[in-house]
């Protein structure tokens, strides 16, 4: 059985991921933007205001590997900090969508269910 860490452990894990990222989103283009203007890395900083005027950015600690963003929450919750990265919500959501589309494109279509054999 997988042990999900208590909330206090998760806060410490989030803080460790943010410290390793220097409080800045670690996306390097997997979201679809090249971030060239910012040295190849997303400029979003935790607590700073986004360029779009949407309010302060709240970074997430989530799987660093885009394919791992598709893990069920109970599996993602037990990943070690070396497998996590800091993500701004925009880059996280865009990378998740891209990984999901890629997985759907490679997954064979299931046979449709039918009520009657024809």
Topology of helices and strands:
Blueprint: H1 7-20, E1 60-63, H2 73-76, E2 84-87, H3 89-106
Antiparallel strand pairs: 1-2
Polypeptide structure, described:
- The chain has helices at 7-20, 73-76, 89-106; strands at residues 60-63, 84-87.
- The protein is 31% helix and 7% strand.
- The protein is mostly helical.
- Residues 1-6 have low confidence and may be disordered.
- The longest helix has 18 residues, at 89-106.
- The protein is globular and about 60 Å long.
Percentage of residues in DSSP E strands: 5-15%
Distinct helical segment count: 3
**How much is the radius of gyration in Å?**
18 Å
Q: Summarize model confidence as the mean pLDDT.
A: 85
Query: What structural class do you assign from the helix and strand content?
Result: mainly alpha
Separation of termini?
A: 44 Å
**Uncertain runs with pLDDT below 50, 5 residues or more?**
1-6
Strand order of the largest sheet: 1-2
Which sheet architecture does the biggest sheet show?
2 strands, antiparallel
- How would you sum up the global shape? globular
Structure, briefly:
The protein has helices at about 5-20, 75, 90-105, and strands at about 60-65, 85. The protein has about 120 residues and is mainly alpha-helical.
């Amino acid at each position: 059985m997988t042990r999900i860490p208590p909330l206090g452990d998760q806060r410490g894990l989030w803080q460790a991921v943010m410290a390793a990222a220097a409080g800045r989103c670690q996306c390097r283009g997997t979201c679809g933007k090249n971030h060239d203007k910012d040295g190849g890395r997303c400029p979003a900083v935790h607590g700073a205001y986004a360029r779009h005027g949407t309010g302060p950015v709240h970074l997430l600690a989530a799987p660093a590997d885009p394919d791992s963003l598709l893990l069920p929450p109970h599996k993602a919750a037990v990943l070690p900090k070396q497998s996590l990265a800091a993500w701004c919500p925009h880059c996280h959501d865009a990378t998740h969508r891209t990984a999901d589309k890629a997985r759907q494109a490679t997954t064979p279509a299931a046979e449709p269910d039918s009520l009657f054999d024809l």
